[in-house]
Design a protein that fits this description.
By secondary structure, the chain is of the alpha+beta class. It has helices spanning 7-20, 41-48, 52-60, 68-77, 82-91, 99-102, 108-115, 136-142, 155-161, 174-192, 197-208, 210-217, 265-281; strands at 122-125, 131-134, 228-233, 237-248, 253-259. Strand 3 (228-233) and strand 4 form a beta hairpin.
Amino acid sequence: MATTMDRQALGAFLRARREALQPEDVGLRRGPRRRTNGLRREEVAELCDMSADYFARLERGTGPRPSEQLLAAIARGLRLTLDERDHLFLLAGHRTPHRALRGEHVSPGLMRILDRLQDTPAQIMGPVGETLVQTPPAVALLGNQTGFTGPARSAVYRWFTDPGERARYLAEDHPQHSRISVAQLRASTARQGPGSPAARLAAELTARSSEFADLWERQEVGMRWSDQKRFTHPELGLLRLHCQTLLDPDQDQTLLVFTATPGTGSHDELAMLTVIGAQQLRP
């Protein structure tokens, strides 16, 4: 049930949070002639994937009430804590986010790390394999994974229902990838319990994929990725990459960082992903 939007308080809160952030906090460079206190509205708008005009109207207290999805993007762009995010929702006339939306909020700590990895393939994953944020090189490596809706937001769901999802992984590694994906979803289901998003995803995949159903019956747990993953990139060919993970247990989210051994061909080709990622971001 919605409450009344406090436009003036919302505008003041957004302005204060914007001015409290420095360019270095979000991975931006500080220009020599910068005079703005904190971030510019245009910079925040880009971080939130929204128009600068609309953000300015929200700050002035003249904009229409933002949706829950837009508020979630603002909370992430402004690097809000969970308490600050809940406050933002209330000021905008919404109840505090339900559990599913709260689980998609990336902590400021993880975002600060990701901000410093903009030249590296890295992305933050949710509890059932949702890609929440990607760096440009990660998009160049794996494609844009943040635009899916419904069950397809989960990489596990797409792996078993969309043949194209497997195209960037070496074919001979597919069976092991499937087993590990199922084992990890089983672990998430055990943590979240019956009726949870993980349990619902497992039930839907059991009905839709015979491969998943067969693997689910094996009751395998504790399987992990090897030290190295092999990718087949459409422009760079075979890449042998290491995947380091950083877990945020409070949010049940994982930061994935892909690296390559110095002196190898994969290391040189990995550097090209930064160039490819920058080209994809150009208008």
